[in-house]
Specification:
Length: 132
């Protein structure tokens, strides 16, 4: 029985991963339609992962993507702990890519992707603990 539970857990994790990748693709297309240039996608750092890094005019957006049924559910899914981890990953990215941040305002955004609905882009979804 433990073997069956492990297989089911792996299958569940794979479905969540696939749903997340699909939501990120939708978010990328949505941001591009809004004039953003995608600089990075699924950036893995030693300090955490950033779903999307996008630029538009003088804004550098660090974007978290949530696949949920509503805007409120997406906001609720974004925990303080997760925000801090994303901020640390952003600090790592900016230290290694100073040109990306040059003369740009850095912002932390959220894109909520729900089935059969247009994505919701929430600019300045949270304010970082440290100044950027």
């Amino acid at each position: 029985m433990p073997e069956k539970a492990a297989r089911e857990e792996r299958a569940s994790r794979q479905r969540r991963e696939a749903r997340g990748r699909s939501a990120e693709t939708v978010a990328v297309l949505w941001l591009r339609m809004r004039g953003y240039r995608i600089l990075e996608r699924r950036l893995k750092t030693p300090l955490g992962e950033i779903d999307i890094i996008a630029a538009r005019r003088d804004i550098l957006a660090i974007v978290e993507v949530k696949s949920r049924t509503s805007r409120d559910a997406g906001l609720e899914a974004l925990t303080t702990r997760q925000c801090r981890r994303i901020e640390r990953a952003a600090t790592w990215f900016l230290a290694r890519s100073p040109r990306a941040a040059a003369t740009r305002h850095i912002r932390f955004d959220l894109v909520v992707v729900a089935p059969l609905r247009l994505p919701i882009h929430i600019a300045n979804a949270w304010t970082p603990e440290a100044a950027f």
